[in-house]
Amino acid sequence: MTNSTHQPSSGGIKVESNGVNAVPESERYGRPSGLFPIWFSWNVSILGMTYGIYVYSLGLSVWQSITAGIVGYLLSCCLVGVLAVGGPRTGLPTLTQTRFCFGYHGNKFPTLFAYISNMGWKITIITLASSTGAALFTKLWPAAFALADGKPTLVCILGWFIVSLALTMSVAIYGHQLIMKVEKYIAWLTGFMSIIFIFLMLPHIHWDKLGQSAVHGDLLTYIGGVVMAMTMVGLGFLNYGGDFARYLPKKTQASKVIFWTTTGISLPVSILLVLGAFLADSNPDLSAAAAQSPIASLTNLLPFWFYVPFSIVIIVSLLAAAITGVYSSGLALLALGIPASRATTTTLNAAIIGFGAFYLMFISDSFLATFQSFLASISVVIGSAGAIQLIDFLRQKRLGWDVAMANKAGFGGRDGRWTALLALGVATFVGLGTITSGDPYIAHVVGFLLTEETRHSVFATANLGVIVSMLTGGVIYSLLTFGLKIELPGISSTQARSAPPVKTQKAV
Q1: 3-state class of 455 per DSSP?
Q2: Residues 235-252: pLDDT tens digits?
Q3: Which of 347, 11, 18, 320 is nearest to 176 (CA)?
Q4: Which residues cross the membrane (predicted)?
């Protein structure tokens, strides 16, 4: 792959020039501890409380919910950290490095699903940020921004929608350097305000009722809680760990990359999960309301002096997640082979997110439930691809992390590696056949391997099929690659070795 020799400017922050090419060693900087704020600011959100409520709702005790959730977070976030190690070793975004495993063109299948999943969550995040800002204005200036029923006016919602989208795009389009600086300050701000929020929520927990419930889940239910926690947090980040680690020096210690990535994601959501589980166990009415409308139901409990600044912090934390997501989505489009710069793909992503969020807020009444079901379905592909890539790391390390493997056949890579694609295909079939969906239309294409009794079990409701698919893909690929020794090395002809390497996309 071609490497840029562009030296980073010593002046002010400029638009990032690197796209899906390998970042040259001359442009590497930073320490692995810098990964902590990027992930912390993304995940320190009031929504983390509802995750604890969801795990508890499976039929676990409060202490089972807490331990199952934390175990699930640590397992899935550690996987993200391991995949992030590929960033400094190759200088490539994760969805470009997966070409090593699936081949140049074969990689487009998992990349497409990863892109769709990322965009779906960003649409939801922009929607939440806009609605939170509109709710804040209706309380501050009801005469100007509230309707007779107390809901925000169309102008108020539309205004916040435009502001949220513009702020997200403005930072994301500049790229890695600005994002790393901005997210560091956001992490401090959101972390400090979240501590105050936690203390203000403690009086709403009925401590005398805590742990009094007779509910106690069996082993399968507990495993279901672990899996649910994994799917809610870590597994959604599998394809983006290397995007923010690739600017670290190549010799950066792997254990530190894994530690700071894992901690940055799991620490905030674990603390908030404990609070959510306590709330669900001792105050069922409030927990039920939070499950339906997490931000509104929980912020309404706050004193007005804190409600205003904390609402702003909620908006900031949501936009922090949107910024990093838009950045990674732009890299995903480049990995798909879209002939455009990273700045252009970021702009395209902003337009798609804007349209989706606009549809969600102003047109659809039921789109959210359908879309969330769809995201749960495609997580089967994402999780399976991540598991296969993790197994392939052993081969990539043995080959010296050669970035030429991300090229087309003839230039050090392959157009497709049938071993990885076969494993992904079988895993996807098994995964879709063993999960269920609350959407009546999507339900027709999933769960076809389940019996009628199993469809209503914890196995189905907790989407254990996602883990089954990951294990299936990993085992099949391991057997083919290391058992049968079908490694399929890159293809380099004599003519190709003397020819220039494949041109890679950069943001210029």
Answers
A1: helix
A2: 878 888 888 899 999 999
A3: 18
A4: 35-56, 62-85, 112-137, 157-174, 186-207, 219-238, 258-280, 304-336, 348-368, 374-395, 416-438, 458-480
Decide: 61 and 216 in contact? Cβ < 8 Å. yes
CA distance linking residue 2 with residue 506, whole number of Å: 10
Report the CATH number of the 25-483 domain.
Answer: 1.10.4160.10
The span from the CA of 164 to the CA of 310, in Å, is 16
Determine the residue type at 145.
F
Token pair listed for 407: 């090229």
- Cα(432)–Cα(472) distance, integer angstroms: 12
208 Cβ contact list (under 8 Å, min separation 6): none
Enumerate residues 6+ apart whose C-beta is below 8 A from 344. 507
Token pair 């996309």: residue:
505
Phi, psi angles (nearest 5°) of residue 217: -75, 150
Rounded to two decimals, what is the model's pTM?
Answer: 0.83
Query: Which residues are CB-neighbours of 295 under 8 A, at least 6 positions away?
Result: 46, 47, 128, 131, 132, 135, 314
User: CA-CA distance, 260 to 329, in Å (whole number)?
Assistant: 22
One-letter amino acid of 411: F
Helices 62-84, 47-56: inter-axial angle, 10-degree rounding: 120
Of 300, 297, 272, nearest to 287 by C-alpha is 297
DSSP secondary structure letters along 96-113: HHTHHHH-TTTTHHHHHH
Query: 50, 286 in Cβ contact below 8 A?
Result: no
| pLDDT digits 0-9 by tens, 52-105 | 888 888 889 999 999 999 999 999 999 999 999 999 999 999 999 999 999 999
| Cα→Cα distances 38→41, 73, 186, 322, Å | 6, 17, 9, 12
CB 469 within 8 A of CB 434: yes
Q: What 8-state DSSP symbol labels residue 508?
A: -
Instruction: Kindly calculate the radius of gyration of the chain based on its CA atoms and give it in whole angstroms.
Output: 23
Side-chain half-sphere exposure of 233, counting CA atoms within 13 A = 42
Q: Is 128 helix (H, G, I), strand (E, B) or coil?
A: helix
Distances (CA, A) of 507 to 4, 122, 327, 331: 11, 22, 12, 10
Sketch the domain layout of the chain as residue ranges: 25-483
Cα–chain center distance at 479: 29
| CA-wise closest residue to 424 among 389, 373, 465, 393 | 389
Q: Cα–Cα distance between 57 and 55 in angstroms, integer?
A: 5
Could you say which DSSP state residue 11 is in? S
Q: What is the DSSP letter of 148?
A: T
Kindly state the tokens that stand for 302: 């706050």
- Residue 220 pLDDT exceeds 80: yes
Tell me the average pLDDT across 123-134: 85
In this structure, what token pair is assigned to residue 12?
């002010």
CB 249 within 8 A of CB 134: no
